[in-house]
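From: lab user (bench 3)
To: helpdesk
Subject: output format question, protein + iron/sulfur cluster

Hello, I'm new to running complex predictions and I'm not sure whether the block I got back is the full result or only part of it. Here's what I submitted:
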Amino acid sequence: MEHQPAAMPFARAGAPHLPPRRRVSDLMFRVIWALLPAIAAHAWFFGWGIVVQVVLACLFGLILEWVMLRLRARPAQPFLSDGSVLTTALLFALCLPPLAPWWVNATGMLFAVVVAKHLYGGLGFNLFNPAMVGLAVVIITFPIELSQWLAPRGLGEGLPGLIETVRAIATGHVSNGPAWDAISAATPLDQLRTGLQSQFLVSEIRADPVFGALVARGWEWVALASLAGGLWLAWQRVISWHAPTALLVTTLIISTPPWLLAPDLHYSPLQQLLSGGLMLAAFFIITDPVSGSATPRGKIIFGAGVALITLAIRRYGGFPDGVAFAVLLMNMLVPLIDRYTRPRVYGHPR
Amino acid sequence: MQLHSFPGGLALPHHKQASLAHPLERCPLPPALYVPVGQHQGEAGRILVEPGQAVRAGQPLTLAEDDYQVPAHAPCAGTVVGLVQRPASFPPESYRRCIEMVPADEACSDWDDEPGRRLPDWRRCNATELVDHLRAMGLAGLGGAMFPTAAKLRGDWPSIDTLILNGVECEPWIACDEALMRSRPEDILGGGLVLAAAVVAERIVIAVEDPMEQTAQALERAAERLGIAERFEVVRVPAVYPQGGERQLIQTLTGLEVPHDGLPQDIGLLCHNVATAAAAFDAVEHGRPLTERIVTVTGPGVAQPRNLIAAIGTPLSWLIRQAGGYTEHARRLILGGPMSGTALITDEVALTKGSNCVLVLDTAPAEPATSMPCINCGFCVESCPARLLPQLIYRAVAADDYDQAAELAVGDCIECGVCARVCPSQIPLVDYYRHAKGEIGLRALDQRRAALARRRHEARQERLAAEQAARARRRQARAEKLREKSAAADEIQAAIARARQRKKSAE
Ligand code: SF4
Ligand code: SF4
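Helpdesk reply: Thanks, we reran it on our side. This is the complete output you should expect:
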């Protein structure tokens, strides 16, 4: 009846003695699951492009990650399977135009994985959001490629098929000629910005069919799918509510009063929320833990700051969407934010 | 009572039923007892017995000379073998001095009271008499910290208005207080009256976890039966770990925070474990010194988990044998609970007054290699009950920046282990904080030593300088005297010369 265990002396380790609730890979793969609706909506409205870009970005990401881990003499298996590089790849691919040539994709991933992540010390040590570093670099180096968007499903001459998509991405050869003109369209944000800068009224600009039923044909559905995925993540407690809420609320607070006063001169709040990458940023980019703020109040400041800068760039800047730059700017402020938003420790004076 | 809440915390699986399914029973005496002489930080006072001496049950083995010493008593009649070194639970692989004792034949740990030791009519005693008596009976906090009860009852703080009896066992598996509250509710209430009288507190609050509704009602009924219901309030608190932590419980009950460099007594509160209250009742009503406690022996590695009334000094191996021995799954032996207990390498450790649970787990600890870098996910921040920034402290400690760790208030970490439990990177965070606290303590000591050395050095320098100055002064004085002397000699010479001159000129 009595049983002496073989394991005498017993194994010893510090408390607590319970297994952890979740692992890093578990979190990352939940983020990936939550991105799938947005990717599906993107594929429906803009065709095969996103699928090819996602595959390419994941491939580049994994290869670069493996090379960097080898160079830094780190174990490959735990870090390749933690899902972090795949998350970066997905987010980056979602920000690319569907037919962007493969070297755009490769350049972005190179900067994301090699520079932003590994040169700063690898997982957990990067100061900047890797996907946003990659995006900012390609926005600056390939401005033409980055502004060429397909017309969403139902506009233009129809979406290219899988073979055409692959060929276009492999060769970069649709970017001119009448065929391209037939299938491309400027994004709603682009049209608004250039239109307003040339003294058109919002109602005139919005006559264009790219604005669709709500604010941006196709885009609005990608944004709503991001919202759904993000809410699921918050419900699963993978992300905290602070940063997304701060971003969305700030956007509403800033954009509503001018729009109420002069709706013909300003973006509508809904336009701000549902076009471009703002919704994706709210739930998937500014919630990146590593490059975000550590404290709850800091997260709120971070989200609000990103909203502020994004709206300013949208209105006054030279780029179609300012999310990437807004996130990078706020990344720089994180140490400062963390310093001044420390919670009051138990028992310390108020 | 209007309840508040503490920040963070964690809902954990309860697992208390595992040991409570079996009735509370008395553990037979082992062949040899090892009564620890140092029950807490200090010693248990002067040793009163000699090898070979026969002792009565309850006879003091050591004598406490101040409130911070806790005397040990013989758990049963028997013979003292001598002073031996036995493995201690903490620090790992350390030893502790114990008095080895062989119980007499037929000896039982459930002996009759000795009327001489009882406090005659304790209700008439004043606070000093009560505290003195509790100290002589060897009372120490039974919740785990083993803090000397007398030192907790006596001190120069403002008046205490509320006594809190802590019946919140928030860690999974541990059920010894639950078993006690079920079996002896009246004695806990009686002990509450004793402790309240010792600090002249008016109000008594008993806190239990809200899933333990039956226990709460049993306590309320007992108070009715004894006719003291108006003195007591039984409060159900939410079952969130670490609700049973003194500071967290106070926050839940009152909304107040204990000052970080202070004690609950500073804000008029006093917190005692329910088991300590029952022991106080035994001490004054029956004259029974603290020589036994209830301990939970449980976990998937134990064949028949149960709660045992066991004599202090019983080896854990004996307790486990009473609970059916190990199962083949036994991998880890924990003294205390799974969140903050100490992992032992051997079951030769003896039961102390603070040992509430012997837990045998069936899982091996995580390999250190499986921990990943911190990804700043903030889960630890959300769940830290002390409102710290655990990940920043971890980074500071990992970078050996102890000043930064102190600045981030690592000293206020209660080592509850919540942050490590929620960390997806599986970082053994609490190990880092313990290390940092030790290091900061050592540095403070070093600094004190350095300051002392500097003061000594300066004093020496001053003394040397003073001596040198004195020597110089003496030398100068001597030189002057010499000069005076030589001046006098010159004069004499001159006078002689003059005299010679005169003589010559006279010739
Ligand atoms: S829970 Fe772990 S990984 Fe997350 S912030 Fe805290 S220490 Fe870092
Ligand atoms: S162990 Fe310390 S840092 Fe971690 S949750 Fe508990 S109090 Fe906070």
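A quick orientation on your result: The domain at 17-357 of chain B is CATH 3.40.50.11540 (Rossmann fold). Let us know if anything else is unclear.
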